[in-house]
Amino acid sequence: MKLVPIEAKSKSYNVYIEARIRHKVGQLLEEIVTEAFSSIFVITDSVVAPLYLNDVVGSFQNKLPIYTEVIPSGESSKSFATYEQVMTKALECGLDRKSVIVALGGGVVGDLAGFVASTYMRGIRFVQVPTTLLAHDSSVGGKVAINHALGKNMVGSFHQPDAVFYDPETLYSLPEREWRSGFAEVIKHGFIRNQDFLQWLQGEVKSFDQLPVEQVINLLERSLAVKANIVAEDERESGVRAYLNFGHTLGHAIESELGYGAITHGEAVAIGMIFALKLSETMFEIDLHVKQHENWFQRLGYKTTIPNKLNVNKLIGKMQSDKKAEAGSIRMVLLQGMEKATMLEIPPSMIEQLIAEQMEVDDVG
Amino acid sequence: MKLVPIEAKSKSYNVYIEARIRHKVGQLLEEIVTEAFSSIFVITDSVVAPLYLNDVVGSFQNKLPIYTEVIPSGESSKSFATYEQVMTKALECGLDRKSVIVALGGGVVGDLAGFVASTYMRGIRFVQVPTTLLAHDSSVGGKVAINHALGKNMVGSFHQPDAVFYDPETLYSLPEREWRSGFAEVIKHGFIRNQDFLQWLQGEVKSFDQLPVEQVINLLERSLAVKANIVAEDERESGVRAYLNFGHTLGHAIESELGYGAITHGEAVAIGMIFALKLSETMFEIDLHVKQHENWFQRLGYKTTIPNKLNVNKLIGKMQSDKKAEAGSIRMVLLQGMEKATMLEIPPSMIEQLIAEQMEVDDVG
Ligand SMILES: NC(=O)c1ccc[n+]([C@@H]2O[C@H](COP(=O)([O-])OP(=O)(O)OC[C@H]3O[C@@H](n4cnc5c(N)ncnc54)[C@H](O)[C@@H]3O)[C@@H](O)[C@H]2O)c1
Ligand SMILES: NC(=O)c1ccc[n+]([C@@H]2O[C@H](COP(=O)([O-])OP(=O)(O)OC[C@H]3O[C@@H](n4cnc5c(N)ncnc54)[C@H](O)[C@@H]3O)[C@@H](O)[C@H]2O)c1
């Protein structure tokens, strides 16, 4: 079993990575937690439930009351309505302050279940059992949230899990586009903090088909280590944690303008990273070999141009209303060099021009 | 200006008590906060708005964007619906992470606005400007919450304010029953932590008419000091903070069974305190002079018997599902002597009998 320790200021816990660990969640939880728990509430989604819910529930061997809630698969479950509904279920099941919530699924389940855990009776414990590649990012660090029509993740809090149990086997049922979505965050970790890792990835991962499980474990471990590192330094995003938004300012704007679901988070972030790399080259007059990265991205099936049905001014408007923004400015994470992330305020005019240049060109045949 | 320091583990701040301080909120806030703020969002209710909103808004002297939201007066505003609505307004106003929320009102406004502050963009700063006596209790200590049909304060978190500005003048527009409601928590602080204070109260406060402002300030300061003391010891209610629930286990059950609004929180807590005193006498075979307390309570207009339209078993059921309860037991705060609070698990049969004895007797003329 691989183990990545997370040492956030408010709490320390581990990510446990092992094939088939989903069958041992109950047993491991019992070994790990310091204070006994009274009941278990597993929250998962409609796609994950038929695949892995029984395995996780079975791992508790009926030793104590266990309840389950299956929310619809997809981003739209990170809503006020689902939040209230899950709270109702939790109360109906009689969860108390010693109950533990298990978030079994991708980032949507993790973010929603985590927000429920952080606010149920003013906060109870929870653990993450991620089943997507993207969730290697979302399951660690304690950011939990739901969406609002006026913005993604606008309502939430910080609530660290007690443990993360990662079963790489579950990733093999993931559609290719979800691999692509999660892998963008892996790449991001390379860019901002670990150039060796990025090079290793570029050498080893040419497609998402048939990655051996050992390689997946390796990849998870190294990518998680970057996140762990950053969260340890800055749990509350007052400093370096903001670097994790590399690629996200434009990425979020694209996601939001296309309508959530039209493009995956990671696909949008990939476009945003290419944009941030180009902007970095211009701002700092350096060479980051964007073309080479772009080729690799394309080989992995990412689009690197901005869909041309999007309006430049609307994208800029969205970038200005980003959570990280203050009063209309556009702040972005750029690279002063590989592994050298920095936060900069960029004039909208400059952004406008670069967006125009990165717009997808219609194939006029 | 009187000042009560609150030293919670996660944060230190002060309660500032002064007549007319509502006119100085803007100025004081500027002096106090360490990090500049970008905009102000005042949340208040429909009864308080016409009385004091202008004073508070005026105190900011148009120095920066200021937005206001008026929620309906009353407990029903601590709902998911109002929570979502206030979030929407906050987003529409473009509040960012450097905005500050001002909660102007009683415990309802404080709890709701505090929960909004604790979850807007994963947490922004807020200050309390309490306008009820009860809010001397609710504005301090960082417990924030909304209600669920299945239980009061079931959804919430811990989020300490940056400051509390208490203007005793505002209490003079408060109806007598709201004085009575808040005063129960003042009495409670005496019972669990400060017998001298309780004796002083019994000597000085024979009715809620015409208490001079100096006496009100005195009373607030001493009562707040007890709360401050307990919060400093135990912010997260893992220990002594639970003693603040003295009178609340039965109190909550009565409130909930009568339907919220039929009786004030403090009126219900008063009945609960008499109950807890009687139970304490029985359990520890001591004399706590219940009759004498009961007389004083009645003189102040409190009922001390349990409304006989309530069903004993339903009350017990509610007491078992209290947030503090685990798996069906009834845990209550009792006194082993004055100022000697303790938490005890009580057999439901014992509670049943004592409730029956405290039931209101119909006047059969
Ligand atoms: N909290 C954080 O720090 C953080 C960081 C990044 C992203 N996020 C959030 O994460 C969310 C995206 O996460 P996601 O990409 O995991 O989305 P997701 O949870 O919606 O999962 C993607 C899809 O894959 C399905 N799925 C999940 N596991 C599967 C499996 N093993 N096999 C087959 N199908 C499976 C899901 O049902 C869903 O349809 C967004 O809401 C984003 O805001 C949070
Ligand atoms: N967070 C905590 O630690 C804590 C502690 C105790 C109680 N509470 C909560 O506090 C709430 C009760 O607080 P409350 O009793 O202040 O209720 P409240 O806020 O509803 O105020 C009571 C009534 O007085 C009105 N009012 C407020 N200020 C006034 C003024 N100056 N003049 C005239 N009218 C005024 C209000 O509009 C309301 O109708 C409950 O929801 C309870 O759960 C929280």
Automatic annotation (TrEMBL), chains A, B:
Coiled coil: none annotated. Its main location: cytoplasm. GO terms for molecular function: 3-dehydroquinate synthase activity. Zn(2+) binds at residues 185, 248, 265. Keywords: Amino-acid biosynthesis, Aromatic amino acid biosynthesis, Cobalt, Cytoplasm, Lyase, Metal-binding, NAD, Nucleotide-binding, Zinc. Residues 70-180 form the 3-dehydroquinate synthase N-terminal domain. It is found in: Cytoplasm. It catalyses: 7-phospho-2-dehydro-3-deoxy-D-arabino-heptonate = 3-dehydroquinate + phosphate. Its cofactor is NAD(+); Co(2+); Zn(2+). It is an enzyme of class 4 (lyase). Its EC number is 4.2.3.4. The keyword Metal-binding applies. Binds 1 divalent metal cation per subunit. Can use either Co(2+) or Zn(2+). InterPro entries: Dehydroquinate_synthase, DHQ_synth_AroB, DHQ_synth_fam, DHQS/DOIS_N, DHQS_C. Pathway: Metabolic intermediate biosynthesis; chorismate biosynthesis; chorismate from D-erythrose 4-phosphate and phosphoenolpyruvate: step 2/7. It comes from the Bacteria. Residues 182-325 form the 3-dehydroquinate synthase C-terminal domain. NAD(+) binds at residues 73-78, 107-111, 131-132, 143, 152. Catalyzes the conversion of 3-deoxy-D-arabino-heptulosonate 7-phosphate (DAHP) to dehydroquinate (DHQ). Belongs to the sugar phosphate cyclases superfamily. Dehydroquinate synthase family. This is 3-dehydroquinate synthase.
